[in-house]
Amino acid sequence: MENRNPYENMLSVLNETCTMMGKKESEYVFLKYPEREVKVSVPVEMDDGEIRVFEGYRVQHNSARGPYKGGLRFHPNTDLNEVKALAAWMSFKCAVADIPFGGSKGGITVDPTKLSKRELERLTRNFTERIAPVIGPEKDIPAPDVNTNSEIMGWIMDTYSRLAGSPRPGVVTGKPIEIGGSLGRTAATAAGVCMIAHKAIAYVGLDKEENRFAVQGLGNVGGLTAQILYDGGHRVICVSDVNGCVYNEKGLNITEIRAFLANGGKLNEYKAEGVQQLAREAVLTIDCDVLIPCALENQITVENADKIRAKIIVEGANGPTTYEADKILASHGIPVIPDILANCGGVVVSYFEWVQDLQNFYWSEKEVNDRLTEKMSAAFHAVVDMKEKYGTTFRKGAYAVAINRIIVAENMRKSWH
Ligand code: NAD
Are 247 and 286 in contact, with CB atoms under 8 Å apart? Predict the structure, then answer.
């Protein structure tokens, strides 16, 4: 049976990459364990007066390169192993992007679609109080992730600021612009995914003809990735979300689909000329050139890896490909551009937001996007250098960049002495 524990999958890639680089276990063993795991119980008064208690987590993986940084997700399947893996990937991602942060992640086990807005706000604020001792602008800075958004970040910022006694916009990123958010943050992850996708397509020589794109997930990352591709004149032939999957070989109208969803429509009810409804998972195995999974982890597994027809995969989501599936894709010669490179644009602009908050000096959208382009380009080239040096996959190339950078910082600080 395939191992779907994302933390163990992360450890397998870590071990393999370190062996490839000739590292002794004692040089990297600290990366196998999060520095801190916090589990909290969060009581919430529901609208009917009933009290329910939710479980929440904040895992801080490594801080050698700077304060911890990582998103917060609300999902019914969120558990400690998922949050631990996501925290470790954040350490690696910040190192690949070469920004001065370590890695962390948070989560609450909850289906937010079952809560009213007031219940969601009480849950967010009570969770923030519970984790307040371990977060802060110099300690650990949350951001949006699955089912969390700028409004929720605003509630976190406000709750933390009330506890601190003065406004602390730097405690969280992905906030509304009016209370210290950065221009360009909402689209940053997707913009970065598209930049890396185009670079990777050119690198592997797939830029000779018009490419057909398929995108799984239509949230912050997937929806905006599909939109940026569509706006750029690219053919997006298949998209899916939690409710369904639609396909049109001639290309979908992404603007129309996103407007339909924003107005409360369900993807499985979307109708347009030439559009076919498919089973939700069909997006992964559709005949396309570029597959961009942007939903959740463990989507490409031993069960479907053999059936994938894309010529290249760009991971917009964190951990969408299992360790075993990765090996199958490699054996078929399908390059996989890993999450820690492909989706690092979000944390790069989160870093810019944090810098602006600490300085109380805000940048234009052009400045943000120019600096993002520079960072994404540098990250891509650093990964390609390692990939070529070791004759390995993009994933192990990216891990190699990250592991080397973290080990250098850890050795300079010698936190275990
Ligand atoms: P989101 O909540 O905005 O969107 C998630 C999307 O996935 C929704 O459209 C949902 O319908 C869809 N989905 C859920 N289950 C699905 C399934 N089984 N099949 C198809 N679609 C499904 O979340 P997001 O912020 O876009 O995050 C998506 C992924 O990107 C996650 O892995 C997250 O960790 C990662 N990520 C997000 C950011 C960010 O800035 N938001 C940054 C880096 C990585």
Answer: yes
Give percent above pLDDT 90 in the chain: 98
- Please give the model's pTM, rounded to 2 decimal places: 0.97
- Alpha-helical (H) ranges within 217-335 are 220-231, 254-262, 282-285, 323-331
How far is CA 338 from its chain centroid? 11
Query: For residues 26 and 21, what is the distance between their CA atoms, to the nearest angstrom?
Result: 14
Q: How far is CA 229 from CA 67, 198, 362, in A?
A: 34, 10, 28
Task: Measure the CA–CA gap between 327 and 346, rounded to whole angstroms.
Answer: 27
Residues 411 and 413: their CA atoms lie apart, in Å, by 5
- pLDDT tens-place string over residues 58-96: 999 999 999 999 999 999 999 999 999 999 999 999 999
Considering only CA atoms, which residue is closest to atom 3 of ligand 1?
A: 219
Task: Provide the pLDDT confidence category of residue 105 given band limits of 50, 70 and 90.
Answer: very high
Q: How far apart are CA 13 and CA 10, in angstroms?
A: 5
Written as one string, the DSSP assignment of 236-266 is: EEEEEETTEEEE-TT---HHHHHHHHHTT--
- CB neighbours (10 Å) of residue 29? 12
Cβ of 146 closer than 6 Å to ligand 1, yes or no, is yes
- Which ligand 1 atom is the nearest neighbour of the CA of 320? 32
pLDDT exceeds cutoff 90 at 414: no
Residue bearing tokens 């997937």: 222
Give CA separation, 340 vs 189, 250, 285, 316, in Å: 11, 32, 23, 9
Q: Is 105 a catalytic residue?
A: yes
Helices (H), 55-187: 80-97, 117-131, 150-164
Catalytic hit among 105, 175, 199, 396:
105
Q: Answer yes or no: is pLDDT of 205 > 90.
A: yes
Centre of ligand 1 to C-alpha 150, Å, is 15
Closest among 123, 1, 25 to 403, alpha carbons compared: 25
- The angle formed by the CA atoms of residues 262, 263 and 265, to the nearest 5 degrees, is 90
* Top-confidence residue, 417 or 18: 18
| Ligand 1 lined by 192 (C-beta under 6 Å) | no
For residue 114, give every residue at least 6 positions away whose Cβ sits within 8 Å of its Cβ, in sequence order, or none: none
